[in-house]
Amino acid sequence: MNKITAYLATSLLAISIFTACKQERKLPFYGERHAETVKDAAGAEKIDTVYQTIPDWSFLNQDSVVTTNKATDGKIYVADFFFTSCTTICPTMHRNLMTIYNDFKTNPDVMFVSHTIDFKYDKPHVLKKYAQKLGVDGPKWQFLYGTKDSVYTLAEKNYLVAVGEDSTAKDGYIHQGYLVLIDKDRRIRGAYDGTKEDQVEQLKKDIPVLLAEYKK
Amino acid sequence: MRNYIINSIFFLSIITIIVSCQNQETIDLQNYMSNGKDIYKAKCQNCHGENGEGLGQLAPPLTDSVFLKANKTRLACFIKNGANETLVIHGKEYKEKMPAFPELADIDVAQVMVFVTNSFGNKQGFVPYTKVSKDLQNCK
Predict the structure, then answer these.
(1) ipTM above 0.85?
(2) B14 is a domain residue
(3) Looking at the partner chain, which of B45, B49, B56 has a beta carbon nearest the beta carbon of A133?
(4) Rg of chain A on CA atoms, in Å
(5) Which CATH number is A118's domain given?
């Protein structure tokens, strides 16, 4: 009898240790951060970490409709920078992003936002044609057009993606192929090289992890 | 008896010559295929895909053997100079511009063309680069 009790006790202990060790995977926060004193609901002061967030934006989408950050309210989204006449990394990026788009097509909490960096040629109707030919329809994946200044600043300062005009490059522009994952509070939670299959796979796995954070 | 031996040696050597000739072409084909694959990866794959599947309506697939055969002499021109016309592939229209690749030498064009026309379910055999050079001179 004593033996059984001892055995039970040890297994219970073992189980509790294992469960205690099992931590849920959480995505990191990217960018600048600082500590700030905030008041909680009860009015008590406490120190909290404030992370870098994506500021308000407003652009024309592929339907020539003014689209703002409000479109992404309450959603997590994947952002990237491309241009339609790009023949180098963009086709690969969007081929890979398409697979994620198709995976989360029915999930209303996930969105996709592609900014063109070709402010001269990629007007909304060009973006529309591109989206249709890629096989994208509807507001879930927004293709956004804006002035050079607004898009380039947003890319470099806020999404931390390098973009630029370069007359020596084959298609006239250079940019990084990152797919940037943004959470519902507009914080950067991941950046994945859209041209590398393994990193795109990782993004596919990380989206549910990020969604799970908001389920509690 | 002696005649018989001489005759058989003669025929054997003829056969060997023929066989080794064929082997040379097989070796060339293998060479073109392996070099062509590298060029394909570097220049073509981002639009046309790892398995030649294309990309939506933006880039056509490379799996239409009928199209490839009908346009055999123009393929080299497409690869080097790009395309700026509507192409019908698998019954679908593709209107996007294909970029030019002027940096490719005739031999590169030949190798990547042989790779494409013998991959993704296509099997159209070997084309030597001398023939491709001639095709390239006749580009419109």
Answers:
(1) no
(2) no
(3) B56
(4) 22
(5) 3.40.30.10
